[in-house]
Amino acid sequence: MSDWYTTFANSGVGSALAEQLGLPRPAVLRRYEPGQPLLPGPALVGSAGEGRLRETLTAVLRDAGVAVLAPDGSDDGEHPAAVVLDATGVTGPGQLAVAHDLLAPAVTRLRPTGRVLVLADPPADAGSPAQAAARQALEGLVRSLAKELRAGSTANLVYVPEGAEASVASPLRFFLSGRSAYVDGQVLTLGAAEVPAEEDALRPLAGKVAVVTGAARGIGAAIARVMARDGAHVVAVDVPAAGEALARVANEVGGTAVQLDITASDAAGRLVTHLRERHGGVDVVVHNAGITRDKLLVNMDAARWNSVMAVNLQAQLDLTRALLDADGVLRPGARVVCVSSQSGIAGNRGQTNYAASKAGVIGMVRAWAPEFAGRGATVNAVAPGFIVTEMTARMPFGTREVGARINSLQQGGLPVDVAETIAWLSQPTAAGVNGQVVRVCGQSMLGA
């Protein structure tokens, strides 16, 4: 599937027509392809105040083969593909002007599909109200800047507490790469963690076993493909009714198909037994399976409410708890990624059951994060916005087009955009990302 209007608006005839009629022309996003460079050009790295991360950021970029430009204007002839600002030295509102002074001229030179990434200390760790205010102000700056950028460029913010410096490299590479094409205007907080020193850039999940529920079609099938591309053996799970499509996906990725209704009373036990006996355990679990049964709350019967809660929320709770309790099945350094939704953050008319279930997923992830951290594992969520799938293709034309355009990138995302974010959160080097929610929504105008 693809966003038809984006494809049309970037064709010869479509481009001319869009210009004549004053229609938006969404950019063709820079998406990840194995073997491509981290960035298609140099990165400008600067700091506001006496930042503590600049040397680390520069070293990571250079190790990835990225040329680093100085912020002093000595490279005026160069157009950066990324601007990285270390704002860990900001101590009060007055220093925010330094961030403006660095970003404003740099952004005017940013290449198409460029990246802006700001790193700062968390407001919760501030030593004074003024310091907390300045750190929090960076969220407003980044979210607004993301709405101003054009040509498929994005801006995001990463909070890095003291002691979490070793966790920086993985999110830096993700947010600058094509993996994050549809992640825009987002805020992530890192934690201290033991991060592997090295990782296979092309196959970061080599040797891992990854369970993907709802894998027969749409986003689930895309997740299975990306996981397999990154080296994992995929255990593709879906309901028996989807058995034929599930088998096709599993065969395509060289994985294993497991027909399982995850709401069945014995589902958790059957999955645990399969993973123990067939694979010796599991490294990655992706809770992707989900359903919608939309109705206004006043017209919604119990069956619609209960079925959505059972699939979207209760099954995730039951399966995860069973894996945590099963001795040795969830391997050390495991990654659990749960699929929430933009609806769970912003709400959506006619989706009280769906939005409640997806908001519940976020609460579950945050509550479980400490237990996972204690095991050297992580649990996170992704919250997709408008993603172009067979399901959205069946929506009324007007509703579909409005849903696809009301974001900073002016287009719907693709299933692979969700899959890339999940695959990144599944990597061993993403150990410092725990209890977080990453929206894959192109910075939707709905919600935070």
TrEMBL record:
<dbReference type="GO" id="GO:0016616">
    <property type="term" value="F:oxidoreductase activity, acting on the CH-OH group of donors, NAD or NADP as acceptor"/>
</dbReference>
<feature type="domain" description="Ketoreductase">
    <location>
        <begin position="208"/>
        <end position="385"/>
    </location>
</feature>
<dbReference type="InterPro" id="IPR002347">
    <property type="entry name" value="SDR_fam"/>
</dbReference>
<dbReference type="InterPro" id="IPR057326">
    <property type="entry name" value="KR_dom"/>
</dbReference>
<dbReference type="InterPro" id="IPR036291">
    <property type="entry name" value="NAD(P)-bd_dom_sf"/>
</dbReference>
<protein>
    <submittedName>
        <fullName>3-oxoacyl-[acyl-carrier protein] reductase</fullName>
    </submittedName>
</protein>
<comment type="similarity">
    <text>Belongs to the short-chain dehydrogenases/reductases (SDR) family.</text>
</comment>
<dbReference type="InterPro" id="IPR020904">
    <property type="entry name" value="Sc_DH/Rdtase_CS"/>
</dbReference>
<dbReference type="Pfam" id="PF13561">
    <property type="entry name" value="adh_short_C2"/>
</dbReference>
